[in-house]
Specification:
By secondary structure, the chain is of the alpha/beta class. It is built from eight helices and 24 strands.
Length: 508
């Protein structure tokens, strides 16, 4: 019995030891946190199109992109994003949100993109978007927004793209953009709303880079002459929003709701509009001409002292001290902008943004910089080199003429040329003078099979006949071989068969 008790005690100790070792070395795996029916891949979580009415209670902590679109969500709990510290993109489009509520995005300090499009939102309160200090893109289009709090976007200091199209907004404050700073803002979509009351001076005071991304088409804008001239000037400058949707910029003529007139087409509504009231609306940019390779300095001239000055480059890069990312543009301590080596990429509109106690975001100064390439100086014409070259070419031609042997094809060329130059058989002076000259033939005249003119020879005519005045007339035969001058020889007097009175030499 004692042995049994001892053996049981040893087995219990051994089991306890194994259990301790297993628990320390091999911990049980954590339960999978991907919600049911959702798809989780690395840091992506997609629960789209599942008909969810509430946000899943457990979400992966490593999620950087969360897609909850195309569901039936109606509300969001405050602090529901606390476990998702790595979240960067949140998609909540195509749901049934009517309101957002305070503290919904309090723990979303790292969020860069928020999609709330295609919901049923009717208003945005002052604290609905608190906690989104790093947000860059906000999609609110295709809702029912009719009211925006004056400070609805106050905390969105890094926002660059705001889409408010396809809503029911009847007014929008361009003076302070409902609390939104214009330093980073590049796109403001207000198209397809109900904007009928619009402050034209506030619209004209916006920075140039924001005007380029301001979409106001498909709104019942008033047919105001100042607005007409302002939009015409933007269209002539080639701003993107005006160029891409020119036909969709309409206004109400004579305040009749159903009578819409296109701004950029010929219409009698704007025939009597004078450009005088619109001259002081928009401050024209200062035109600067710079030479490529030279230095350039721009000063931000403001009406009051500025506490902070920033610049926006033609490439929409925000320039603060010390300067641009590539180092080609520097922002100095006094707020001026300096370019040491002007290049073609520096051409365009530079906008100065000055802020201070007496200034707000629309205190801007614009410079339109044109870069011209330097023209190279023409090189002096070197006559000595051309003279030396001409002499060398002339010497080579002379040497070729003196020492180069003739080609073997010359004879054939000469024969061909002689045959082509045969004249028609007309009486020649040589035949007329046959009685006075001697024609020697190697073929006997009594041979009927040979023509007498096959081997004609050259003879010297007798001087003193037909007014030659003692000169010798030379007759060239048709078959005279110019390529074989060696075959020519002088015949002696005994071999000649000239006439009795002829004393000229004959060559065969």
């Amino acid at each position: 019995m004692g042995w049994l008790v001892l053996l049981g005690t040893l087995l219990c100790m051994l089991r306890a030891g194994l259990g301790t070792r297993d628990s320390e070395g091999f911990p049980p795996p954590a339960p999978h946190s991907c919600p049911p029916k959702c798809v989780c891949a690395a840091d992506l979580v997609s629960c789209a199109g599942l008909g969810l009415q509430d946000v899943p209670a457990v979400l992966p902590a490593a999620a950087a992109d969360l897609d909850l679109s195309h569901n039936a969500l109606q509300r969001l709990r405050p602090g529901w994003l606390t476990p998702l510290s790595r979240l960067r993109d949140l998609r909540l489009g195509h749901n049934e949100f009517h309101v957002l509520g305070r503290g919904v995005f309090t723990n979303a300090s790292g969020l860069r993109l928020l999609d709330l499009s295609s919901n049923a939102l009717r208003a945005l309160g002052r604290h609905d978007l608190d906690g989104l200090g790093a947000l860059e893109r906000l999609f609110l289009f295709n809702n029912r927004l009719a009211h925006l709090d004056v400070h609805a976007f106050h905390g969105l200091s890094a926002l660059s793209h705001l889409y408010l199209g396809c809503n029911e907004l009847a007014s929008f404050s361009f003076d302070h953009l409902h609390g939104l700073g214009a330093t980073h803002l590049r796109t403001l979509d207000l198209s397809s709303n109900r904007l009928g009351r619009i402050s034209i001076p506030e619209l004209a005071a916006l920075p140039a880079f924001l005007k380029n991304g301001l979409y106001l088409h498909n709104n019942p804008l008033p047919c105001d002459c100042r607005l007409y001239h302002l939009l015409q000037r933007w269209h002539q400058r080639g701003l993107t929003a005006l160029r891409d949707f020119a036909r969709e910029y309409t206004c109400l003529a004579f305040n009749v709701p159903m009578s819409r007139v296109r701004f950029f087409e010929h219409s009698r509504v704007f025939e009597n509009c004078s450009a005088a009231p619109a001259l002081g609306l928009e401050r024209p940019e200062e035109q600067l001409h710079a030479q490529a390779g030279r230095s350039l300095r721009l000063y931000c001239n403001t009406s009051a002292p500025a506490v902070r000055i920033a610049w926006v480059s033609p490439e929409n890069e925000l320039l603060v001290a010390p300067g641009s990312r590539d180092g080609s543009i520097a922002v100095l301590a006094d707020g001026s902008l300096a370019i040491g080596n002007v290049q073609q990429r520096h051409a365009g509109v530079f906008v100065c943004l000055a802020t201070g106690p007496r200034l707000h975001h629309n205190q801007t100064h614009e410079y339109n910089v044109s870069v011209h390439l330097s023209r190279p100086e023409p090189e002096a014409f070197n006559t000595g080199f051309t003279t030396l070259l001409g002499c060398a070419v002339g010497l080579v031609l002379v040497l070729l003429y003196l020492f180069a042997p003739p080609c073997r094809g010359c004879c054939r060329c000469c024969r061909r040329a002689c045959r082509c130059r045969r004249r028609p058989r007309t009486p020649s002076p040589l035949q007329e003078l046959s009685a006075q000259s001697s024609v020697l033939s190697a073929t006997p005249p009594e041979a009927p099979s040979r023509k007498a003119s096959v081997h004609k020879h050259v003879v010297f005519l007798e001087p003193g006949r037909r007014g030659l005045n003692g000169r010798v007339q030379l007759a060239v035969a048709e078959d005279f071989n110019l390529c074989n001058p060696v075959g020519l020889r002088l015949k002696t007097g005994s071999e000649s068969a000239s006439s009795t009175g002829s004393e000229g030499l004959m060559m065969t």
